[in-house]
Specification:
By secondary structure, this protein is α+β, with helices and mostly antiparallel strands. The chain has 3 domains: 5-226, Rhopdopsin 7-helix transmembrane proteins (Up-down Bundle); 240-305; 312-448, Heat Shock Protein 90, CATH 3.30.565. Helix content is 64%, strand content 8%. It has 11 helices and 7 strands. It has helices at 5-29, 36-54, 61-86, 94-109, 116-140, 147-172, 187-265, 271-305, 316-327, 345-362, 418-428; strands at 312-315, 331-332, 340-343, 370-375, 379-386, 432-435, 441-448. A 5-stranded mixed beta sheet has the order 2-4-5-7-6. The termini are far apart.
């Protein structure tokens, strides 16, 4: 034999101690896993039991025999509770406690060598029954997507069979009187104990990892489902807003046409009627602006979020001139070389249109709007400024926020989306949108250009 019994017991003690430490560290890593606590306590009991076996002859035999056997059975009883928790069941101590109470007198009252066979049988019965309980629990709770349970169930069923074989062998060949550690033909039992200690820790770690992985997969499935539901709800909401906005446009146009007609036909002799018509016109303008803003919001959001934008090399000068012509403002500046921007022509047009619209709302008159640009080899800077009231310092950081409006309670129409889309579109083109004017309202858009030779 390669090792004597004492050496095998020492190896078993080291193995069980390492298993206990590994389970403790694993438990501290994932403390929310309830089954790890009894499993760790069971591994500690198993380790202490092997230490007591190793100390046989150095401490009282009665203490070593009784405590070691009871701790060994307790370790498997705790593992049984851990497996029940892993399988979603409540702990059940009635059968393990009855088994331990039934067998404990044998270890307490018969510590002498003459009753070694009786103690071997009692120990094998206790451990075997508990191993079979563990195996049955895992087998009944087996699931196709959790194969580790089936493997661990087979391992502990094998341990139960080994205990049964040990009982039969002891009954057929009762051990003779001997001093402990002198019987070399029992080495297979301790080798199996070393293997079982490894299985004990390994099975817990594998099953916990498997369950954590399955839990993570389920969470990912739930998140994907929630994302799909949210996306569907968003699409339905967008469709509803678009439909509602379209339905509003016709009656709003009718109201606008009639208020204009009333204004033209009025002899302006009734100030109250004129004031009422003016209020209706202003309210109609605000609602029309809101409806158009919702439609633009939906269209731009679709372009940005659904990857519908078509990015290609676009001549920035052409885009800027189109915007200037559309709003009848003068474009100042030129480029000595083609200013090519990698972007979506439609989105770039919206970006600069929003800036010009914003300037038209706040400028004293159209002549107070400045639309200029300049380039170098790497970038283009486009400025849109107006001679209206400068933006207060406390609003400068929030001016690009969605739905933020400084004059929300005043007569200036708007939805608070224009400047938000300015920054969003600029960032989509790897550019920047900034408010740089201190004494006037000046916005600067910086866009990267195609490098030229």
């Amino acid at each position: 034999m390669l090792f004597d019994i004492r050496t095998l017991v020492a190896i078993m003690a080291i193995t069980t101690l390492a298993s206990a430490v590994a389970l403790f560290l694993f438990w501290r890593l994932v403390p929310e896993e309830r089954g790890l606590r009894p499993a760790t306590l069971g591994a500690a009991s198993q380790s202490l039991a092997t230490v007591l076996i190793l100390m046989r002859g150095q401490i009282a035999d009665e203490l070593s025999i009784f405590a070691a056997n009871m701790l060994l059975m307790l370790s498997y009883a705790l593992l049984y509770q851990a497996m029940r928790i892993f399988c979603g069941q409540q702990p059940q101590w009635r059968l393990p406690a009855a088994l331990m109470l039934t067998l404990s007198p044998i270890f307490f009252f018969f510590p002498d060598t003459e009753h070694l066979g009786l103690r071997v049988i009692a120990s094998a019965v206790g451990i075997g029954v508990l191993c079979f309980l563990i195996s049955i629990t895992l087998y009944r709770a087996r699931q196709e997507h959790l194969p580790a349970r089936r493997g661990v169930a087979i391992a502990f069923a094998s341990a139960g069979v080994v205990s049964l074989i040990r009982i039969i062998t002891t009954l057929n060949n009762p051990p003779e009187n001997m001093v402990f550690f002198d019987k070399s033909d029992d080495s297979a039992i301790f080798i199996w104990g070393i293997i079982l200690a490894f299985i004990y820790a390994f099975s817990i770690i594998v099953m916990t990892s498997e369950r954590l992985r399955e839990s993570l997969k389920q969470k990912l499935r739930d998140e994907q489902e929630a994302h799909q539901i949210a996306d569907q709800a968003l699409q339905e909401q967008r469709a509803f807003v678009t439909m509602l906005s379209h339905e509003f446009r016709t009656p709003l146009a009718i109201i606008r046409a009639n208020t204009d007609a009333i204004t033209l036909m009025s002899d302006h002799q009734n100030a109250d009627v004129d004031a009422a018509v003016e209020r209706i016109g202003r309210a109609n303008l605000r609602l029309t602006t809101l409806v158009n803003g919702c439609l633009n919001n939906d269209r731009i959001q679709n372009l940005l979020s659904d990857n519908r934008a078509t990015f290609r090399w676009v001549n920035l000068a052409h885009v800027l001139q189109e915007v200037a012509d559309e709003y009848d403002v003068k474009l100042i500046g030129r480029s000595d070389h083609p200013a090519m921007v990698f972007g979506d022509h439609h989105l770039l047009f919206i970006l600069f249109s929003n800036l010009i619209n914003n300037a038209l709302k706040h400028a004293r008159n159209r002549a107070g709007i400045e639309f200029s640009w300049r380039t170098d080899k790497q970038k283009a800077d486009i400025d849109v400024a107006d001679d209206g009231t400068a933006i207060a310092a406390e609003y400068r950081e929030r001016i690009f926020e969605k739905y933020f409006r400084i004059n929300a309670d005043k007569r200036t129409p708007g939805t608070g989306l224009g400047l938000y889309f300015v920054r969003t579109i600029a960032e989509q083109h790897n550019g920047q949108a900034r408010l740089i004017g201190a004494t006037d309202t000046r916005f600067r858009i910086t866009l990267p250009l195609k490098e030229t030779e």
